[in-house]
Amino acid sequence: MFGRSRADRTEGHSAMTMTRGDDPARGAASTAADPPGSTRASAGTAGTAGTTGTGTEPGAAASPVRERRSHVPADGSAAAAAVEQARKDMLHEVRSRKRTRIGADALMEALINQGTDVLWSYPGGVILPIYDILGDYPEIRHVLVRHEQGGAHAADGYARASGKVGVCMGTSGPGATNLVTGIATAQLDSVPMVAITGNVPNALIGKDAFQEIDITGITLPMTKHNYLVRSADEIPHVVAEAFYLASHGRPGPVHIDITKDALQQETTAEHPSLEEVVAGLPGFRPTLEGHPRQLKLAAGEIAHAKRPLILAGHGVLIADAMDELRTFAEKTQIPVAWTLLGIGAIDEEHPLAYGYMGMHGWKHVNRAIQSADLLVAIGMRFDDRVTGSVRTYAPYARIIHADIDPAEIGKNVAVEVPIVGDARHVLEGLTRLTHEVEPGTRKEYLYQLADWRAESEGSSWHGSGAWKEGVLSADFVVERIGELTNHTATYVADVGQNQMWLARYTTFRRPNSHISSGGLGTMGYSVPAAMGAALGNRDVETWAITGDGGFQMTSQELMTLAADHIPVKIALLDNHKLGMIRQWQEIIYAGNYHSSHLPGPDFVKLAEAYGIPAFKATRTDEVDTVIRAAQGIDGPVLIWFEIAEEQNVFPMMPAGKGLSDLIETWGAPEE
Amino acid sequence: MSSDPSPNGHSPHPAHATTPPPARSLPGSGEARRHILVVLVLDRPGVLNRVASLMRARNFNIDSLAVSRTDKDHISRMTLTLHGDDVAVEQAAKQLYRLVDVLKVQDVTEDRVVEHELALVKVRATDANRAEVIKIVELYKGSIVDISAESVIVEAHGTEAEIDALVALLRSYGIKELVRTGATVMLRGAGSIEEALKP
Prior knowledge:
The complex is a heterodimer.
Chain A: H1 2-22, H2 24-33, H3 46-52, H4 78-91, H5 103-113, E1 118-121, H6 128-133, E2 141-144, H7 148-162, E3 166-170, H8 174-188, E4 193-199, H9 215-219, E5 225-229, H10 235-247, E6 253-259, H11 260-264, H12 274-279, H13 292-304, E7 308-312, H14 314-318, H15 322-332, E8 336-338, E9 353-356, H16 363-371, E10 374-378, H17 384-387, E11 398-403, E12 417-420, H18 423-433, H19 443-459, H20 474-484, E13 490-493, H21 497-505, E14 514-515, H22 526-536, E15 542-547, H23 548-554, H24 557-563, E16 568-574, H25 579-587, H26 603-609, E17 614-617, H27 623-631, E18 637-642
Parallel strand pairs in A: 1-2, 1-3, 3-4, 4-6, 5-6, 7-8, 7-10, 8-9, 10-11, 11-12, 13-14, 13-15, 15-16, 16-18, 17-18
Helix pairs in contact in A: 1-3, 1-4, 5-10, 7-8, 7-22, 13-18, 15-18, 16-19, 20-21, 20-27
Chain B: E1 33-42, H1 47-57, E2 62-69, E3 75-84, H2 86-97, E4 102-107, E5 113-124, H3 130-139, E6 143-147, E7 151-158, H4 160-170, E8 175-180, E9 184-187
């Protein structure tokens, strides 16, 4: 079945690729595109590669032509078949024709050079030149999203799950503005992403043409860098530069806006080497190594500290510094607390893993911060959700702050020892310079922290066992999802109560297993981001944990999940409320519940209308059954958990208050 | 065993603390003063917009901004003055560094510099008081570059403070129009801000 469809595709492509190969300009440029050591065959040889792809012909192995990489999972699974079918459908009407290398070709070649295998996109007038040639590039799996915002979040989720750069695309005007929320989400969470938009032809720029908007003006403050490309010759260099910027130093989104005529022009522009890209960016030289003097100062602080605490952030995960963090913590016997995006920086079962900090963090963690005499902050940025009122934050602590972005240091909190560098190099340096601490040395301190932890976990809503009384509570649901997936899945949160429940009550044991819109707090993030995460890491289950509010913001992507057979398991925690809004209204706005009640549809029927199997659970004893049933389904599936309507996330730090002002009890009125 | 006291001078015995410790100071809450930043940027489309947009978004108020080419054909130079405490201005500089097109940011507030700004002032001046105006302008080493029956255009250059002083004096005659370039500065001596950059 699989071999058959693959052969079909080869036939379907041969006519086109041969005519392309006839074009000398194209052949030359494609060859030049290959970076040294690349295993990728040039685009001009696709026809041949397709044939050798079966691997059975004699002489195939001896052929100098290497196989063209394909995005199709070679496992004969239902997912592979679905992708193949989608491709065949897409190419059904495509006529083979002789053509030359245009800007759109240069763009696709450049994406392939950068290792892009999935493109999240939605067509439109000015990017039709790209859609016209997209079928010629089987290396790239095009996923037709149902809204550009979904595409941007999917590229974001893909990037976070895979560590690679996510790529999304939309047309000019509304297509581009629809991407904006997703780009901003990636910016605030330092996610490597390249967002591509088309724009009206050069001659129409500035004329308020149909679907024209100054999108580079709009994305300027929310991207690491952006480009307006007006000529096809610029495309190879700009794309290479964009990927380099997105993924080096502190990652972030880069936006490329390309005029329609630039996509259509013929070009022979060659793809630059990495050296050429770096040489073209004299203003971009991220510092990776911490300064030896600063590291020495930090080691001195650590040696003297009696109550030190490590604050691990997203930077630890981005720098892939989990081993270095664990080694450093073990050597110095310093417990580790983490931010929302720092979840997974250390295995939560590790003896020195202390917990999640901040506004809805664990009380014991915030208490430890407030009593610490030294904070070792690595790759985190003292966000207001972490510190609360800065004036009362960690009043006894001296602070060592390491971050790759110098602008983060001293921005929110004044620190004693700033270190500019990436988490891995800094932690390595600190481990080298600090002395081994015997586990017994901090006995009193660690025992106290353990006591606080036992007390805090025991007194929380979760620890109180209230769920045992039959009310289906969200913390129980997310805990069971963690258990039944053996803590190995990718869990993608939405925003609000569901996000906090997931962060608090699911035990995360693997780096990058937790994906959440932390900085921007984008409702509607979960389902599309999980869609991306599922293709970013195909080896594990992907769960979208969402509330009924966020789910209804982007539920159109259910169709993308169904059509492209993307195996996302959606756990919809439905309390018929905008739960976090309702909680704030209850506690801070004297119970004035305006607009936080949120009626929704029958979510089982909704999912089934898209062809997605769905289950519903309303009682505690049904939870395991439906989770297991969902795990048994190959492909997307939705579980509708109708949970207690008025469950709050406690403790909670009211905005503007400090970490010592946590509200811990159910319904405690403020003021 | 004693340990380092906290920056607030308190010993860390939080479990037994009875009085709350003094508040942690906020970055940027110190005394504001005028700073001069020299910013070298790649001469690319939109770079001025990036700098201006960043300063606006990060809540910094630019007092003056002068932009021009340098002798290196791909590099432009901005001189930017703003008010803020030292920490806040350092933060502004670090944010500027995040822009890919920014090559170098230097705060020259504490350095020995030549500071010059050019101003053109159209002042109401008739036969009755023209001589007076000219005298004031001469005192400030300015010059009259245009004369009409009812006004003169004064050209003046000097530091921001010197021009402020001249303008204050001219104000009593009636200023019809005023344009200033904003401060431009250069370090005194042989050292060059552009030195570290590749040609």
